[in-house]
Amino acid sequence: MAHGKHVVRSDLWLNPVFDARLAREKDISLGVFPVRGNAAAAWEILAGANVYHVSAAKDELPHEWFATKELIARCPRLFCVSSSGAGYDTVDVPACTAAGIAVVNQAGGNADSVAEHTLAMLLSLSRHMLQCDRRMRRETGFTREDIMGHEARGRTVGVVGIGNVGTRVARLARAFGMEVVGTDPYVDAAEIERRGARPVSLQQLLEQSDFVSLHCPRDASTLKMIDDAAFARMKKGAIFISTARGGIHDESALVRALQSGHLAGAGVDVWDREPPPLDHPLLAMDNVYCTFHNAGVTHEARRNVAQIAADQIVELLGGARPPRLVNPEVWPAYLERRARALA
């Protein structure tokens, strides 16, 4: 990789539109390194990278290939790390910023899929569809009234984080006749209202909502944010849903809130460990809808995310400021590092 602009990614599966888009650019080359079996070859490819398109799947990508300070030190020409999803758990953003490396993500690329998944969980849990399905497979003699659920209409959903996904969840919930309240420290009250929710504090949201749905990023400010105290503030009989990131809610606290009967159910798409171990207590509960961090994993979403990732990389390599810049404060240092790398 001696000439041109070089993009590197791992050999974990990626929708082919990514490679096809980059292949149309005559001055951009793409290197694909193996995540297992040949570390020497992988480092040789990575060493020449200008852009590292890193998998956002923290439990699929070996830690050696996370975008850390150690990896940055071995990639002197690197000036951008591009996450393959909206999240960037595999990227040490402060280390990148300190080195003058821009970090970009693909926020919004799978928002429709995640919002649909959220509403599917909400409706299934409210109507006791899971309990009905499971009881029909293993027993007879129960009545329809034994598994009677509730309509969504007229109930309140609290959206924690009203960005790309949260805004779509609010829109879908309102279409079902639900009231929507929202909280987001990065969005002012007028904008929260414009996005379809009544602005409230997190504490008010927990106290007022029949459904609490998380759509916020995982960072130092949100880690274990939904703990025993937060679950205790929720209405008795409320339902908790997270399609955000594992670690924002305390899994052990959620187990306790469900076992005590305080919560009526939960929809969990994201886990501390993905997939969770088979003996995880949440997997044994009939009132918990469990999925494998696949709310945003649809054919449409995977294609869309790969397409916008490739387009953003092409724009960035062409000199433009990327639209999904995670660390905007890096920009002056980034321009200097880029100029050195391409000299």
UniProtKB/TrEMBL annotation:
Keywords, sorted A to Z: Amino-acid biosynthesis, NAD, Oxidoreductase
GO molecular function: NAD binding; oxidoreductase activity, acting on the CH-OH group of donors, NAD or NADP as acceptor
Keyword Amino-acid biosynthesis set for record: yes
InterPro entries the record matches: D-2-hydroxyacid_DH, D-isomer_2_OHA_DH_cat_dom, D-isomer_DH_CS, D-isomer_DH_CS1, D-isomer_DH_NAD-bd, NAD(P)-bd_dom_sf
All residue ranges annotated as the D-isomer specific 2-hydroxyacid dehydrogenase catalytic domain in the record: 68-327
GO biological process terms held by the UniProt record: amino acid biosynthetic process
CDD domains per record: PGDH_4
Gene3D superfamilies referenced in this protein's UniProt entry, alphabetically: NAD(P)-binding Rossmann-like Domain (3.40.50.720)
Signal peptide stretch: none
Start and end residues of each D-isomer specific 2-hydroxyacid dehydrogenase NAD-binding domain: 119-295
Family per similarity comment: Belongs to the D-isomer specific 2-hydroxyacid dehydrogenase family.
Protein name per Swiss-Prot or TrEMBL: Hydroxyacid dehydrogenase
Organism in which the protein naturally occurs: Ramlibacter monticola
